[in-house]
Here is the input.
Amino acid sequence: MDKLRIMSVFGTRPEAIKMCPLVKELASRPQIESLCCVTAQHRQMLDSVLDVFDLKPDWDLDIMTPRQTLSTITSKCLTGMDEALEALRPDVVLVHGDTSTTFAGALSAFYHQIPVGHVEAGLRTYDKYSPFPEEMNRLLVSGIADMYFCPTAGNRENLVREGHTENLFITGNTVIDALKTTVKEDYRFSTEELNTLPYEKKVVLVTCHRRENYGEPMRNIMLALRQIAEQRPDVELVYPVHLSPVVRESVDKYLRGAPRVHLIDPLPADEMHNLMARCYLVLTDSGGLQEEAPALGKPVLVMRRETERPEAVAAGTVKLCGVVQDDIVTMAERLICDRAAYERMAHAVNPYGDGHACRRIADAIEWRCGLRKER
Ligand code: UD1
Ligand code: UDP
Here is the structure.
C-alpha cells in the first residue's frame, strides 16, 4: 500500500521550532511519508533551527528578501508552492500558526484541493489589526482548514463559536515537545558570552519584533529598556536582536551603548531555551516566548496591548505591560525590586501541554485519513 504523504510547510523561526518535532514524529510512522517544504520567509533564522533539529527540507522556495512586504511574501509563496505541490504530490498539507507563509501555504493547498491541517489553531485576539497581520491570517486559515490542532481547550472553544465543529483536536502545543529536547541542566553555551554572564545578578531576557510595534511603540520599548538598564545596576539585559532591519535600526538608535545591555545576534533555539531557563525575567512581544517561559517558571511581561495566549495570564506567569515607556519600566521595576510580587509570578505552570502534542497530532491525522480506528 502507498504511504500517506504529509507535507509540512513552514518558513519562519517560530514555525520551524514548533514544526520540526512534528515532521520527525510523522517520519517515525510506518504508514506515513513525511515531507518538508520550507518557504524560507526567514533565511538565516530558519536555517539555524533546521541545524538544531538536524532536518533537511525536501523543497526550499528560498523567498526571503530584505525588508520584504506582506504582498511579496504572500505572492512568492503562492507561486513557489504550485511547483512544490506538483512535484511532491502530498495527500495532506500541514501549516502552522499565523504567518504569511501559513496563509499562503494553506491557500495554495486549497487551490490544489489538498486537505489542510492547521497546527496551533484557534488562537484569537479578536482585533484584526493586532497582532498584524497574524490575527487575520489565523481567521483566513481557519476558513480553509480541514483539521484543527488546538493547543488548548480555549482555542477549541474559539473555533466552535465560529462554527467549526468537526475535526477539532486538543493536542497541547508542539513547542513544549521542542523544549523537552533542548533544555538541559548541564547545558554549555556555544555563545561564550552566555557562559560568563553574571547570573547572580538579575538577567532580563528581551526580544521584540512585531510589525504592529514598528514606529512609536518600538521606540517606547527601546527607551524603556534603556531606562531600566541605566537605573538598575543589579540587572543585566540580554537581547538577541531579530534580523529585521526595522528592528535593528530602532535598537541602534535608542538602545545601543546603554550600560549593562548585551545586544547579541539571534540565538540558535537550544541556546535561547537554555538562556531562558537561567534568566530572571522575560520582556518580550513574542508569541512563542509566552508559552516557553511559563513552562520554565519565568515571569513574562508582554510588551503588547493584547495577547492571544490568555491561559498563561490566567495562570499568573504572564502579564501585559503595554507599549508605553512608563508602564513597561514600572512593571519591570516591580518584578526586579519586589520579591513577593516576583515569587507570585515565578512558578512553573504549563497550560500548553505535556510534551506529547506531536504524537497526538500524528494520531489524529492517521485517524482522519483512515489509518487507525480509535480517535
Ligand atoms: C515574521 C512573521 C511573524 C512572526 C515572526 C517571527 C509574518 C507577516 N510575520 O515576522 O508572524 O512572529 O516572523 O520572527 O509572517 N530577516 C533576515 N533574516 C532572517 C529573518 C528575517 O534578514 O533570517 C529580515 C529580512 O530583512 C526580512 C525582515 O527580517 O525582510 C522581516 O522578516 P519577515 O518575515 O517579513 O517579518 P518578521 O517580523 O520576521
Ligand atoms: N528564539 C530563538 N532565538 C532567538 C530568539 C527567539 O531561538 O534569538 C525562539 C524562541 O525561543 C521561540 C521562538 O524563537 O521559540 C519565537 O520566535 P519569534 O519571537 O521570532 O516569533 P513569534 O513566536 O512571536 O511568532
